[in-house]
Structure formats: C-alpha cells, structure tokens
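Q: May I have one protein plus its fold?
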Amino acid sequence: MLSPQELLDTVDRLLADLSGALGEGNWERLGTLNADIKPSVGPMMTAMESGALSVADVQLRLEELQQLVGAIEESAQRARKETQDALNSVNRNRDVARAYQNISSVCLK
C-alpha cells in the first residue's frame, strides 16, 4: 500500500507525463496515460475520504487534471480538423487531376 505522499507523487508524475505528452503532441503516449488516470486518482480519492490526505491537496491535483484534460481535448479537436482539412485538400487535388486527365483524353482524340 502506498503512503499518502506516494499517492500524491503518483498523480503528480501522471500530470507531468500528460503535460509532456501534450506538449510533444504524442497522441499514442496520451492514450496510454489516459488509461492510468483512474488507477492513479482512485486511491488518492480513497485516501482523502479516509482522512489520510487533505481535501485541498486532492482538489489542487483534480483541478490541474481537469485543466489538462480540457487542453488535451482542445488539441485533439484541432488535430482532427487539421487532418480533415489535409484530407479534403488531397481529395480536391485528386479530383482536379482526374478532371485534367478526362479533358486531356478528350482533347487528344
């Protein structure tokens, strides 16, 4: 069983890792870290409920986690939009190339 301080340290490391992965745009790492949130936060919440951790310490970390998750969601939406825009551009270029090919084949007959 982890001590109360170790529980806080675990969440602090997770927050730092999430922030670093977000800064790098490392979506694979963010996905992996996402799976660690509940197993890291759950024991901290249990310790708070038992009085082993202060509400203020837990609240501070939960607020930081909430802000990070919001920033991750915003970044993911931007990345999806950029990807969609790039795909749309590729599709437009392909359509133009196809139209040019059709025109060229008609003109060469």
